[in-house]
């Protein structure tokens, strides 16, 4: 099972201790795109292994007050990465030019 941290602050703390990057998945329970992404994420063994071994994982339903977590707006689903120096990696983007950090259910191979 993947260990999920409970808050952005806890994620930053765990990331600093482990020196593993933080993957922040922003979603809403009521969003069909978020639900589709979740199903694919759970079903993909490669993504599961990567999430377990290589990242601190945060599943964020509520928005954080950290504006760095919304470099191009507040939309879902979006995935952002924070490196152990606490830098939000705005250079790691998905395939959409209008929502740079959006990932649809068919986009998870971009994460591998």
UniProtKB/TrEMBL annotation:
One of its GO terms (cellular component) is endoplasmic reticulum. InterPro entries: AGR/TXD (IPR051099), Thioredoxin-like_sf (IPR036249). Pfam families: Thioredoxin_7. Coiled coil: none annotated. Keywords: Signal. Belongs to the AGR family. This is Uncharacterized protein. It comes from Nothobranchius kadleci (African annual killifish).
């Amino acid at each position: 099972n993947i260990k999920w941290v409970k808050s952005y602050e806890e994620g930053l703390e765990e990331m600093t201790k482990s020196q593993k990057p933080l993957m922040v998945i922003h979603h809403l329970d009521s969003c069909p795109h978020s639900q589709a992404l979740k199903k694919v994420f759970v079903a993909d063994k490669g993504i599961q292994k990567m999430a377990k071994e290589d990242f601190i994982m945060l599943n964020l339903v509520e928005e954080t007050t950290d504006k760095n977590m919304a470099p191009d707006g507040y939309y879902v689903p979006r995935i952002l990465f924070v490196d152990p120096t606490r830098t939000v990696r705005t250079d790691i983007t998905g395939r959409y030019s209008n929502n740079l950090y959006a990932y649809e259910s068919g986009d998870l191979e971009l994460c591998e």
